Amino acid sequence: MTGNLFASPDASNETNKWYTAHCDGGSRGNPGPSGYGAVVQDGNGRVVAELSEFLGIQTNNYAEYSGLIAVLKWANKNGAKRLRVVSDSELMVKQMQGKYKVASPVLRPLYEEARKIARGFERFEITHTLRGGNKTADRLANEAMDKGMGKTSSQPGSKSSGQQPASTSPQAARPYGKLSTSAEGRVPPVSTLRPGNQPAPPPKPARQIFEGYVKGGVVHLLEGDLPDGIFVKIIRE
Fold it and tell me: Across the strands, what pairs with 20?
């Protein structure tokens, strides 16, 4: 197919020829345990496939592209001629649309594979949605990560932030630099103290990873806002 790969929807009444796929990918740690999920509907809105896979230690963007490729391969194998893909990864969508360049040597082969398969369809579209519009795919991605990590329940919100769920243990809840006392007013056992009965130094705060890009010397985040008063180290993926 040599025409416009990302053409606008046609005005015909043949909507039942279009398949629609919502795909999502995530990583707990970025990079960390990762997986993708996808749900495919036929032209009548019936769910015809649910796809998911644990990918091992990968980044969010790697998982997003893996989910897209899984959808493209399924649609191609099952005879779909027209395919709409919906994803909450603005980076991947705009790269596939040709609006962003793909500089990452890791993502480049995935991008090229996805473009190659997409060209085989009669019509192909890819659009961006907020995460709320991708709930089923997000659930499947989290279930894939849970399964790969040996867990039995999904962890919502594990995508993109790169942060691990906060610990709920009493020790983690104690304020830094202070000693908690028991109900009787006794200090914890001496094993929790440093020589000279000085409290141990607080642990270093967890590193946060945000996805975005730099344009004109300004950092632009794809999701959320950059907190005040922090140092930023830009890592090219």
Answer: 41, 84
